[in-house]
Amino acid sequence: QVQLVESGGGLVQPGGSLRLSCVASGSIISTYVMSWYRQAPGKQRDYVAALTSGGTTDYADSLKGRFTISRDNAKNTIYLQMNSLKPEDTAVYYCNAYKGTTYNYWGQGTQVTVSS
Question: In the predicted model, is pLDDT for residue 44 greater than 90?
Fold first, then answer.
């Protein structure tokens, strides 16, 4: 069973930055598609960004240029660098790992609050 543990969330002022981390149990981040999602209160969980095993990145259109997904294989960790944060970025951010149609894992989430 794969475990994903997110960290790095917190309270930040508008315009600030945060870097989220997701540590995976086992060496999976180089062979799974690793993604970030977020869920604001009362809303559905939305896609944020993904990083394939081959290193290709993809982002939600509305977040391109502000968010960057990356990984450190040696640390079994993926990151989400978030810049120029806005109040509408406030949400619980979830890490996801999937491979094919069989393997799909979620972390417990980390809260990001953007407020002055």
Answer: yes
DSSP β-bridge partners for residue 112: 10, 91
Q: What is the pLDDT of residues 12-29, one digit of tens each?
A: 999 999 999 999 998 888
d(CA 39, CA 49) in angstroms, rounded, equals 13
Cα–Cα distance for residue pair 21/79, rounded to 1 Å:
5
Q: How far apart are CA 10 and CA 39, in angstroms?
A: 15
The CA–CA distances, whole Å, from 89 to 15, 38, 108 equal 11, 9, 18
Torsion sign, CA atoms 64, 65, 67, 69: positive
Q: List, as one string, the DSSP characters of 37-106.
A: EEE-TTS-EEEEEEE-TTS-EEE-GGGTTTEEEEEEGGGTEEEEEE-S--GGG-EEEEEEEEETTTEEEE
